Amino acid sequence: MQLAKVVGTSSRPQTKKKGAPRSAPVAIGTPDRILDVAERLVQTRGFNGMSYADIAMALGITKASLHYHFPTKADLGARLISRYEENFLRALAAIDANRADSKRKLRDYVRIYEEVLGQGRMCLCGILAAEHATLPPEMRGRLGAFFDANEAWLVTVLEQGRSTGSLCFEGPPALKARMLVGSLEGAMLLARSYGEVARFTQVATHLLAALSPPKPSRKVLAFARG
User: Fold this and answer.
1) How far apart are CA 194 and CA 179, in angstroms?
2) 147 CB-near residues (< 8 Å, 6+ apart)
3) What are 4's strand-pairing partners?
4) 22-44 in b/e burial notation, b at 16+ Cβ within 10 A?
5) pTM of whole model > 0.85?
6) What digits encode the pLDDT tens for the residues 67-96?
7) What domains appear along the chain, each with residue ranges and CATH number?
8) Angle, to 10 degrees, between the axis of helix 52-59 and the axis of helix 30-45?
9) In this structure, are residues 80 and 69 in contact, taking their beta carbons and an 8 Å threshold?
10) What is the pLDDT of residue 226?
11) What is d(CA 175, CA 173) in angstroms, rounded to the nearest whole number?
């Protein structure tokens, strides 16, 4: 269920699109390769710490090729968010397809974050949210859409879990979903600053445990056995 993949420099020959400017040679699959490398750089350095020169060097192409596909850095950033959200939603759909109970779905949800952190990366939208004030306007709105989609999915899972008794919590599911997303994103930041995935796992485990129904006391069990 990994969301991030590292793509190395392609050794395939470059070809030109019909009608493309001579200064912008286009390699086979270049847009996806650009996005793969840019995603990795943003997840490890942040958006402001990534440049077109970094991407061009990693791929062995010219900056002109980058501008051909993504005229501005804002265009590239907006597409990065859209693609990341699409991949994340596919991961959530895969969790739903397993037809597991709500508690298992939440564990699988946490595992998505854990896998990304285990690669030495941050959630793309989480690290971009930390840079929100310096991002281009076209990127800010897309960030909100990503988190809204996550919260909406979690609300459904929480509602189902409470109705079946597999989850127990007070207050509206929407508020609990917001708390989960915020807590997990924050736990990623702190775990990364220490270089310890275990810190994230400990926080996530505690969050999920707090949603479990309380176990009956020994007195209640003894009375039930009668």
Assistant:
1) 23
2) 125, 129, 181
3) none
4) eebbbbeebbebbbbbbbbbbbb
5) no
6) 999 999 999 999 999 999 999 999 999 999
7) 14-73 (1.10.10), 81-209 (1.10.357.10)
8) 120
9) no
10) 52
11) 5
